[in-house]
Structures are given as structure tokens and as C-alpha cells.
Amino acid sequence: MSHGENTTPLTSDALVEVAHLAEGIDRAVRRDAEALSRRLVEGRFYVACLGQLKRGKSTLLNALVGTAVLPTGVVPVTSVVTVVRYGAARGARVCMKGAGWTAIDPATISLYASERENPRNAKRVTAIEVFEPHPLLRSGLCLVDTPGVGSVFLENTTATREFLPQLDAALFVLGTDPPITAEELQLIEEVSKRVRHRIFVLSKADRTSDSERAEAVRFTTEILRTRVNADDQVSILVVSGADVLASGRPTGDWPALVQTLQQLATRAGANLLAEAERRGLAYLRARLVAAVEERIGLLERPLADSEARLAEQRARLADAERALSDLSPLLGAEEARLLEQVERDRDEFLANAVPLAERTLEARLASLAERGPALRARALAEAAAAAKANLDEWRRLKSVDVERLYRGANARFLEMLQTVDPDGASSGTSREVPLAIERGLRGGSAFYMTEMLAAAPDALSARVADALAAPFGGRIDAVRRDALAYLRRLLDVNSARAKNDLRERLTASRRELEGDVRRRLQETIRSAEAALGEARTLRAAGSAAVAGELNRLRSTLAAVLAVGAGAERL
């Protein structure tokens, strides 16, 4: 974790003012400002548990509070963001859209939070809070369980991403197979731009061998240093929440994890709250400014022009929504074609690379000076090096090809969408579409070459066979034979893993692009419909009503900008 934060506190007066200014303009901004102000007054800060689906996030949080309060399972479980906060007694409540908060039995949380009981959030749950009398939570620290990114259910990934503006610190839960995915890396990069406090854990330590954990920690540490934490020391804690829940005793790095969270709560809590207000105020201010400016624009235009423009925009919104549904299979078909090409390329790679790598390895083996037990170890290391050199070059070339092809598919998809929404008005993407095309695949590669140490022909039986082989030529023949077999195995397994890495990046990128466009459409539809109704009501009331509302909106805009400017000077 980093140090040296600005400890100058902000009061909640600015948030109260934003909530007041949002009255009658944007109910969502008012609601969110009031909620943020309440949690700041109560001293609550959020540590969100983030990661790929099925990393064991819910189990980890259950172990931290000492009870299995959050639902877990073998299929994607968490579908709604759930906050675990301090309470004098155990309890829970759920908030439904349009219905407010309702107290529930903590034993029934799965009815609202799990994908099985609440598929794709059909019950329209907006929030769940669990109250636990645990000392770790007493200082105001709240643990947040989030749906896994990369879920087959787009709604689950969306729920996690929509919570990001509210989090104050992040607890990233990673695994060993793979150690870190492209979507997880992208999420870590995105969150790191928002918050300073990040904790990394490797979960499910009870299900892996020492060598698998060591390899995963090494690879993940290097990736994080390169892509996220270049100037900081990266520490990955190896833990098993299931072990702690089952035995009640800490194992591995569990004591270090608890100590880190306790220090976060006692030493950084005030700073986290101040940072939360700064982030929240900037976020809410931008939303409110956009809402006010949209209303001013609707009223400043002549009546006929405004009504015609709004009617046209409404029709475009509907057309764009239908177009997105129609075009989604086309984008999926583009992805399928790309994956078929990757599959063919992988077969071609193996056909060409294996003979080349074998010749390279044969030459290296012939020049080895080692004898005895060191011979086998060196031969296997040479086999791994030959496999890596061939794989790295193939992956580099294929990544460039796939990136180029994906950009083309992406551009065609957005061009087709543009034909029904030529001005980009309905989707709000007119300025963002070029960036979406240029960005290409989302996130970075999560591939790492596993050397399959457990499967390498370096076991005691192989070394005994080497010692018994006579004469020396028999020994080196056995080592050569095993090294070549190991090389072929490495190329076969790792080229398949590299192919799957590209597949995962393609699927995640397509899903995120489609989700981004769909969310912008839905948000714009809701905003446009509300503005349309209010503008028509004002027009019907006459020019004096319109002029009065314009004056009010301009005064509100000036006041919102002043609140933001005052916060920036603090």
C-alpha cells in the first residue's frame, strides 16, 4: 500500500449542496449524494473484494467475519453487490428498485444475492447490506462482495463495474489457473486509477501444490510490477478462506491479511473517507452538470425545433436499441471466425515449430558439458528455453494479427450501428466511437508459459535410471529422449493455453464493447424520456414558464460549478 496521502478533510456540506441542487433535476444524483453523505457522517468506507468469477471471494469474506453469511457454490453465485458492515447484532436488509429497504433474515440472503435464486437480478435488487458484530468492522470498515468479472451473465460484470466509483480500497482475489486473467488485469488497472490502497491475495491455497502456488505468485507479481505497480513493492498473500472457516485457525498468510485490513481501518480510515468525498463529489458534480446542460439545450431551441429534435432522438434511441440486438449476433459471428483462425494458426504453428525447436534443442544438447545428475536438469532447462522462444514469437505475431482483425470487426460493428444513429445522438458515442475502435482488445494478456514442473521428467526414478544406464551414451540417450518429449509437451500444452488466452480476450472484449454501448443506450433512453416529458410540460405552460425554468437552470449550473470549484481549492 502507498503512503503520503493528503489528510486534509472535507466536510459533507458540499455533498448536501449537490443533493439540494439536484432536486427536481436528477433524482439519482440526489439519492447518491445523500447516500454518500450518510456514510461519510457514519465513518463507513468500502473495501471491495474484486476478481474473476469463482475465485473464492465470498468464501474469503465469510472467513474474515467468521461465519458463512454470504452464499457460495460451484456455479456463479453472487449476482448483486453485497456490503458487510458493523452491527450490534447480526441482521440484513435488501433494497429493491422502487421499494426501498426491507429487513430480511440473514439466512435468506441467497434469495436476493445468488444467481440461482435471483437470475440476472430479475428481482431488481439495488443493494444488500449484512450487519455483523465483528471487531474488524467496528471502525467503519465495510467489506463488499461483488459479482465476478468475466461472468457469462453480462449483468453480473456490469454490477461490479457500476460499484467502482464508490469503493475506497480494493482487495483483489486472484488464483493459480490462470494466475491472472486479461479481464482481471484490466480491472486492476482501472481500479488503480481510482484508489491508492490495494491488497492482493492468492486464494484457494488448499487446492494447489507448493510449486503451482510459487509459479503463480512469481508470474502475477511480475505482471503487476510491469503493468500496475512499477514503483511499489508488490506483495501477494497466499490464503485459503475455506481452511480458516473449516478449522477456525489461520493458515498461510492469513494473519498478514487480517493485520493489513486492521491497519487500513485504524491508520487510513480518515484519509479514505476524505478521498471518498473528493471522488464522489467530482463524479456527482459531472453527472449533474451534464443533466442541467441537457435541459437548458432542450429549452433554448425554438419550440418546433425542440419537439422535432426530441421526437427524432426518441425514434433513434429505439432504432439503435433494436439495431444493437440485431447486430450483436454479427459481432459474435466475427468473433467465431477469429477464433477459428486462431485454432488453425495454432495447428500450423505446431506443425512448423516442433521440428524447428527439436533441431535447436538437439544442437544445444550436443554442446552440453554437464555430466551426472546435472545433465538432466540442464537438458530440461534447455527444452523449456527452446519452447519459450518459439511460443513468444508465435504469440507476438498472432496477437498483432488478432488485434488487427478485432479492430476491423469492431469498426464494422460500430459502422453498422452508426447507420441507424448517424449523429451518435442516441448512444452518446459520437466522441467515444473512435476511441473504442483504436483501443482494440480490452485488457492485457494473462498468458504465462507453465513449465509443468510437476510433470517434467526429472523425478527420482528418472535420475536413478540415468545412474544405472551404461555406458554413458545410454544415459545421454535417455536424457535426450526425455528432453525432446518434454519439449513437445511444453509446445503442445502452452500453445493451447496461448490460444485460450486469445479466446478469453476476444470474448471479454466483445462482451464489454457490447455492454458499454447497451448501457449508454439505456441511460440515454431514460434521460431523454424524462427530459422530453418535462420539456413538453413547460412548453405547454407558456414562454414565461420556459424563461423562468431557464433562469433557474442557469443559476443551478453556476451553483454546481461553484461547489466543484470550492472542493478543488480544499
Mean pLDDT: 76
Helicity, as a percent range: 55-70%
| Structural class designation | alpha/beta
* Oligomeric state: single chain
* Major sheet characteristics: 9 strands, mixed
Please indicate the percent range of residues in DSSP E strands (runs of 2 or more). Answer: 5-15%
Low-confidence stretches: 1-11, 150-156, 420-440, 459-473, 566-570
Which H/E pattern describes the elements? HHEHEEEHEEHEHEHEHHHHHHHHH
Number of domains: 3
Which outline best applies?
globular
**Number of DSSP strands?**
9
**Total of helices:** 16
Which strand order do you get reading across the main beta sheet? 4-3-5-2-6-1-7-8-9
Radius of gyration: 28 Å
SSE topology:
Elements: H1 13-21, H2 27-42, E1 45-50, H3 57-65, E2 82-86, E3 91-96, E4 100-104, H4 110-113, E5 125-132, E6 141-145, H5 154-163, E7 169-174, H6 182-192, E8 198-202, H7 210-227, E9 236-238, H8 241-247, H9 254-267, H10 269-300, H11 303-366, H12 373-420, H13 433-439, H14 460-468, H15 472-541, H16 543-569
Parallel strand pairs: 1-6, 1-7, 2-5, 7-8, 8-9
Antiparallel strand pairs: 2-6, 3-4, 3-5
